[in-house]
């Protein structure tokens, strides 16, 4: 399991501290974000930020994010280009595209058209830069892109298979009522758990996303095992949003315990 750490899980850590934590956890890399309460790379120039990561033995597997990418405008195009430029300078492998998640653009026909227009707009930017974009379906009922199938079909229809990959998020997969996994089209897997037994699935929100343990209600181990069995061999990245998780006094021990739990469960299934 190629473990990775998303800065959203520990947003209180500075960039260098975040990298040190990922390295201590033996992660292969990190996902860095522009939507937490600190400057991207803590204001370090992208070229230097990338070098610092590589010097610690870490890949910059992803740079997040442009939202809402499927509301395609000249402003959105400029945002995508700017993120590509930063990613290239830093040596990041991908950029992240997040769909509109406010209850608009949900209509059948409108939803697919907006997705196609946006992907067609992004594709030449990616081609010119030799860059890959990770597109993340969100399982919320209010999301304008819930279906992996719609996304895969649209990517194929515009010939974008070489430059677009899916994010398989175990939380959003559960909220979207499962469905096909598409391991060959998946570029990264995001993991987190929901453990509160009082929540109905449709009530689950980002703020409930904690570390995976034996109380997990999302079926993380099942989803990871199925993806690995189907040939997925990419990064598996911790992305938690719970304020309690983000405020962990000892994130190394807590995340290490959770990674070890997942690994032991996977090993037991393989035995």
From TrEMBL:
Q: Which GO terms describe its molecular function?
A: isomerase activity
Any single Pfam family the record assigns to this protein: AP_endonuc_2
SUPFAM superfamilies named in the record: Xylose isomerase-like
Which key words tag this protein in UniProt?
Isomerase
Which superkingdom does the taxonomy of this entry point to? Bacteria
Which InterPro entries does the UniProt record give? Answer: IolE/XylAMocC-like, UCP036778_sugar_epimerase, Xyl_isomerase-like_sf, Xyl_isomerase-like_TIM-brl
Q: What is this protein called?
A: 2-keto-myo-inositol isomerase
């Amino acid at each position: 399991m190629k473990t990775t750490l998303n800065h959203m899980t520990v947003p209180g850590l500075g960039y260098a501290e975040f990298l040190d934590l990922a390295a201590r956890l033996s992660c292969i890399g990190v996902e860095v974000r522009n939507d937490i309460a600190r400057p991207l790379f803590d204001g370090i120039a992208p070229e230097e930020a990338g070098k610092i990561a590589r010097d610690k033995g870490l890949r910059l597997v992803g740079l997040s994010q442009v939202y809402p990418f499927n509301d395609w405008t000249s402003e959105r195009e400029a945002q995508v280009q700017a993120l590509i430029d930063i990613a290239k300078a830093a040596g990041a492998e991908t950029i992240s595209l997040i769909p509109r998640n406010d209850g608009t653009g949900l209509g059948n026909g409108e939803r697919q058209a907006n997705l196609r227009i946006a992907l067609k707009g992004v594709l030449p930017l990616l081609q010119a830069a030799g860059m890959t974009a990770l597109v993340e379906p969100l399982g919320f009922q209010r999301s304008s892109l819930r279906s992996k199938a719609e996304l895969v079909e649209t990517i194929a229809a515009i010939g974008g298979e070489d430059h677009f990959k899916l994010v398989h998020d175990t939380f959003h997969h559960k909220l979207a009522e499962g469905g096909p996994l598409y391991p060959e089209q998946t570029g990264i897997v995001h993991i987190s758990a929901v453990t509160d037994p009082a929540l109905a699935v449709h009530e689950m929100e980002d703020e409930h996303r904690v570390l995976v343990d034996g109380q997990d209600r999302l079926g993380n181990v099942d989803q990871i095992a199925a993806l690995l069995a189907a040939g997925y061999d990419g990064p598996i990245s911790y992305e938690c949003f719970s304020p309690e998780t983000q405020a962990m006094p000892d994130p190394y021990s807590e995340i290490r315990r959770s990674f070890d739990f997942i690994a032991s469960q996977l090993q037991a299934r393989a035995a």
